[in-house]
Amino acid sequence: MHVVIGNSTAVQAFQAGVQAVTTALNDLPAQLTPRLALAFCSGDLDAHEFYAGMRHLLGDWVPIVGGSAMGLCWADQCVTHGPCAAVVIMAGDDWEWQLATSQDIYRDPHLSGEVLAGQLPSLPDSRCLLLFFDSVRFAATPQQPPILIPAGPIIAGTHHPRLKHIPLFGAGLLGDGNFNLTWQFCGDGVSRHSASALQLAGQFQLASCIMHGCVPLSDRHFTVSDVFGPYLYKLDQQPIVPLFDQLTGGQQWRHLQHGPTGRPLPVTSLALARPLGSDPDEQQLVTRLMTGVLPDDTAVMLFEADLSKGQQVMLMRRDPVLMMQSAQDNTKRLLAQIKEAGQHGKLALYFDCGGRMSAISGSDGEEAEIVRDLCTAAGIPFLAIYTGVEIAPLQGTSYGLDWSGVLVILTQ
């Protein structure tokens, strides 16, 4: 396996496509031919024009998979606003790929996942599945938060029992922090409200870890007692909004933060975490952000509609300092494990929640740069994609995560 990465911050989308591919191909040995491209561009760029620019150099037969990104981080730059684009070109004959696509995923996300699974074979040397899907069903407006496509059903459909032994990673894609509609590259075209599942197999291994960065407001565990879809009404039989007012000492948590443009960001400072075991290890927490409070203060709205009555949850507050420390500690630990196994990283993909950008989280610097610097110092080609939802396996089941970072390294 040979991997090269190109990038661009050109304002003109076609030029960005050409520039990103050119930069990558300049590092590809002449005897190797591109076999697969992973490509991402911010919502500031016309996705169709960017795709056309890549096709201008890659020709018609190299599959291009990926889509929208809130921002990108590569070897020498981290772009969290403005136009940016990147392409990962994979070559070599010791690995294989299979691509599945599904359209109109907002109609039935679980069925769309099953459509993906039905297109994928059970390869004996499969190493991982990469799932990309559009996060936004209806864009946000000044009057209401965005309506998102839930990750849980599409993950469950894709991770069919026939494929359950293959670890599933990926992301729900976003093009900007305002939750406008997104685009996706599905191998041979550009589409919306779509999903792609990429199966990778061959002579390589896989290593991964999850970065979090929330702290519990208390050791108390709450029981979900009234929930409907993404709307959470009660914990421990208590109305949730006044309960949170009491626990936080005021109503400030209700008010959405504001970004650099002055527009409200569609997240609050609080989150809920569902422990998957008795150990409080952050690697065993499924975190859910809150997108706001209903106008009548009867419920909070969650990113994912996957809480159910009777589940235990913890109330968390996002902590930028802990987020940075988690990124450093977990990346160092993973790289040490790879080195100890006698492996060398061939590609590092970091699916990073857009809410972890410093402009949103309030952190002192970009935590993706911590992960990047450690990976590049180890000689691993690196690309971080700022996303809406991050997907990673926990205890044998893959989950969509919120305000997390998922680092996946292909090794040989």
Automatic annotation (TrEMBL):
Occurrences of domain FIST (ranges): 33-239
Pfam families hit by this protein: FIST (PF08495), FIST_C (PF10442)
InterPro entries, per the entry: FIST_C (IPR019494), FIST_domain_N (IPR013702)
Lineage of the species this protein comes from: Bacteria, Pseudomonadati, Pseudomonadota, Gammaproteobacteria, Chromatiales
Protein name: FIST N-terminal domain-containing protein
Species this chain originates from: Rheinheimera tilapiae
SMART domains: FIST, FIST_C
Residue ranges of domain FIST C-domain in the record: 240-394
